[in-house]
UniProtKB/TrEMBL annotation:
Principal location class: membrane
GO molecular function terms listed in the Swiss-Prot or TrEMBL record: bitter taste receptor activity; G protein-coupled receptor activity
Species for this entry: Oreocharis arfaki
UniProt key word Cytoplasm: no
Protein keywords: G-protein coupled receptor, Membrane, Receptor, Sensory transduction, Taste, Transducer, Transmembrane, Transmembrane helix
Protein name: Taste receptor type 2
Xref: Pfam families: TAS2R
Biological classification of the source: Eukaryota, Metazoa, Chordata, Craniata, Vertebrata
Gene3D superfamilies: Rhodopsin 7-helix transmembrane proteins (1.20.1070.10)
UniProt-listed InterPro entries: TAS2R
GO (cellular component) term, any one: membrane
Name of the gene this protein is made from: Tas2r9_1
Membrane-protein topology: Multi-pass membrane protein
Length: 313
């Protein structure tokens, strides 16, 4: 029927877009992880910034893989999601790596804030001195928080409303999703709380850091210091501002996901998926270009690839 053909074409287009974005994000984060692992082998150690970036890259690679598998099965082969325990495991792993991604990203913003910002508060000075010892505990707390929420997600996915063995068609799959919305509202509240908590940490870190950098820039201009130092701080302010904008868009998409989760074939749903799959790759790309070592390595690889293509041609 025309309606079925429209659904099929919409599903194929969605899978194609998601696949392209997922593989682009996987390539970017795989580059980040490989460079950091090579540096780890050479130096036998990693600093706090590199530890956060390495864990962030690994969590994003896993998140993109499980999210792509879940989206592919839910759109093309929805019946396979009802084979026990595929649905529970995919949702649990996706939730774990999603929250790991969010919380480790928030830890990175907090780390930048404490490391770069300058305040005369005694507590802030104490954090600046002890930040290298605090980072492992922040990462451990992020992992425990993500694990606890993933266990709750596994338990919710194991409920009869969510795991309906009698749902054999794509339409019945979406009806089961609507039932899940009605009976498991606490799960959406829990997800919203996790998103809001991590986003709040990002907001405060960005505001404090931007205020500190702005005050430092004004002080340098008053003291007639070199313009090169002023330009460096302006670039840092732009980088942090771009982080804040990306996090804001991602937070809005995460909230809209809970609103449009049952809207089958909706253009808004497709737009949300596009932004969600763009965030892990774009943010990691900004992190690469804001790090001189990573940027230099990436440019070397791109130039080497270009020279090899030119020789072959």
């Amino acid at each position: 029927s025309p309606q079925q053909s429209n659904v099929t074409s919409y599903g194929a287009m969605t899978v194609a877009i998601i696949t392209l974005e997922a593989f682009a994000g996987l390539w970017i984060n795989a580059f980040l992880v490989c460079v950091l692992c090579i540096a780890w082998v050479k130096k036998k150690s990693l600093n706090s910034n590199e530890k956060i970036l390495l864990l962030l890259g690994c969590s994003r690679i896993c998140y993109l893989c499980f999210s792509w598998v879940y989206s592919f099965l839910s759109i093309i082969y929805p019946n396979y999601l009802h084979v026990n325990p595929i649905l529970q495991l995919i949702i649990s792993f996706q939730t774990f790596f999603n929250y790991s991604n969010l919380w480790v990203s928030a830890c990175l913003c907090v780390f930048y804030c404490i490391k770069i910002a300058n305040f005369k508060n005694s507590f802030f000075i104490y954090l600046k001195v002890k930040i290298d010892r605090i980072v492992p505990w922040l990462l451990l707390g992020s992992g425990i928080s993500a694990l606890s929420i993933s266990i709750v997600a596994y338990d919710i996915a194991d409920k009869p409303h969510c795991n309906n063995r009698n749902s054999t068609g794509q339409g019945n799959f979406w009806k089961a999703s609507i039932k899940m919305d009605k009976h498991f509202f606490p799960s959406f509240f829990l997800a919203g709380f996790g998103y809001a908590a991590s986003f709040t940490a990002v907001i405060f870190s960005a505001v404090f850091l931007l205020f500190s950098l702005w005050r430092h820039k004004r002080k340098m201009q008053t003291n007639s210091m070199k313009n090169l130092s002023v330009d460096a701080h302006i670039r840092a302010m732009k980088s942090i501002l771009s982080f804040f904008i990306i996090y804001s868009i991602n937070f809005v998409c995460l909230v809209l996901t809970m609103v449009y989760v049952t809207k089958k074939g909706s253009h808004m749903t497709l737009l949300i998926l596009v932004f969600q799959y763009t965030f892990p790759g774009v943010h990691s790309l900004i992190l690469i270009f804001s790090n001189p070592k990573l940027e230099k390595t990436l440019l070397k690889i791109l130039l080497l690839e270009r020279s090899v293509k030119c020789k072959v041609c």
